[in-house]
Fold this protein.
Amino acid sequence: MSRDTLAAAARRDAGSIVEIARCLIAIPSAYPPGDTNAIAKAVAAMMETVPGVEVERHRSAPHLLNVVIRVRGRAPGRRVVFNGHLDTFPRDPAAHWTADPAGELRDGRLYGLGVSDMKGGVAASLFALRLLAAQRDGFDGEVVGTFAGDEESMGLLGTQFLLDTVPHARGDAMISADAGSLRVLRFGEKGMLWLRLAARRRSTHAAHVHRGDSAIDRLLGALRQITALRDYPVPTPPDIDDAIAAAAPVSEPLSGAGESDVLRRVTVTIGTISGGRLSNLIADAAEATIDIRLPVGITAAAIEAEVRRIVAADPDLTLDVLRRYEPSWTPPDHELVRVLRRTCRAVLGNCSPPPGRSPDGCGQNGA
């Protein structure tokens, strides 16, 4: 297969990426409820009439339909997987929008709910699959697209379900066109712990505080210790550290000052907190949910052990681990990263060294 032939075909039909994206954006798939039935059916319909494309539908729940698209080359070989999610964050109130959230093309830019996270990326992946299907007699191996739901909820019924049940959803390399910038290649993703911490104590009237013991106070005391894990020492591997530092002049203006530091550190976010029944009663129950992101260089088990040590010191605290993901990354000098960088430079003229990324409320999509 000639790279020049493929590139020329991509340039001729590049405008169709926008049309595919507009179609996807117009189909609601916000979480909650994260219903992907309509959008998955639209993806399947777009591709099942393309010669050389195999389309599979995989249902993991009544509201969750996932799609796998397969393009086989002329002979067996390595498999590249394009992975993407079909659900989006919920829509803000209409008053917060200056463009149509169902999709609006303005001054050469496409706006809409999920355009960057990640219906635009799904559109680009579908476009690439269609082009590669037309050139399938020119390469060995295969290209597979896995398009899933249950991502914004950090659930297990989307990509993880496909990895567990569809053999060809696993490959030798994976590319995800999730939220980011054309100027930065992302080679990794931080790990994650989602926790629920609860406290139970003795209630009494606020006029008689000596007779009670506040669950809120107990909870806050533990949370102060858990948030101190932001200073947990991280032995960042040298190649990862060098890549983050080299990318900082490009990535920080795009993602905000301090991003390079965040990529190397444990972050702790108290997402929700609740407790008590009345303002004039000592709280007998309190609860918080916690999001901890784990950089390359440490394990989920190490941080979980620290949290459990804190909780074990107070018998009135209980801990539930809701989600647990290890950090994942591709070495910065891996063949896939080198190929992507060369392609970036050929198309854009410039591409920065690739840093890792912190998940965006989404789960395991860094490439």
